[in-house]
Predict the 3D structure of the following.
Amino acid sequence: MKVKVKVPATSANLGPGFDVAGLAVTLYNTFVFELIENGLEIIGCPEQFCNEENMTYQAFVEGAKACGLDFKGLRIECSGDVPYTRGLGSSSTCIVAGIVGAYAFQDRYNDRQEILELATKIEGHPDNVAPAIFGGLTVSVMETDHVTTLNIPVKHDYRFVAFIPPFTLSTEKSRSVLPQILPRSDAIKNVSHLALMVASLINGYDEGLKLGFKDRLHQPYRGDLIQGFKEIMEVLENDKKVLGAYLSGAGPTIMALIKAEDTKGVVRLKEELGSLIDEWQVEKLELDMRGYTCDYE
Ligand code: HSE
């Protein structure tokens, strides 16, 4: 028997919701697990990840411990379209898939809350793993041994335009430039922007989004690590049909929100951005509403 787990890419923070808010999008990684007599076989990913340090394997081991699965050997086949180290939750797809894979061999792949808590423990924050597990747009609160996640019902039909640079930025490096202490005025701005963004999405108040996506906690510090960040954000800010823009997760991908009916949005934005996004990949994505799926083969 094989277990196939498909996990959506995710875009975290949504501007002011650092380590709190995230959304799942229609871009996926797929992992097929098979228990074998002994050893570890990993195929479909770069050679340097085909060993016991592999994140999916390590999550599988943790998942197996948590759900009481005894296994001698494992084969993992990976494939998918989520770019690596670009701020679209590729590591969360590995962590979630590994845990779900182990739980699936115990017929427990749908124990989503338990899977969330273990995935958060491994990742360190819940904002990517939560939407990868539940789908949609989520907000999460992490306590010592419990994670509370809620889905935000988004009223309008939006598209998410991901501007994905040709270069990578590790989460570790991107977190290392953040200050430990914020001025109170910046903290108040972030709390108010997050509240405005969430309320605007629920109520379909599109006019509130551009301000609601603004951030003072991480983007001003991370922007310097991303070539062209300020200029690109300025172009997006000045486009009247862009409802909001933010740094996706730890970056370097930049995400812009447009309405579904703005069908020429991607072409228009590519023209406006011109050489600023030379060799960048541009993907028009929708919200994934399911989170991971799991099938037996
Ligand atoms: N909230 C995380 C960060 C997401 O911005 O560092 C990336 O792992």
Remarks:
- Residues 12-13, 18-19, 125, 127-128, 171, 174-175, 218, 249-250 surround L-homoserine (CB under 6 Å).
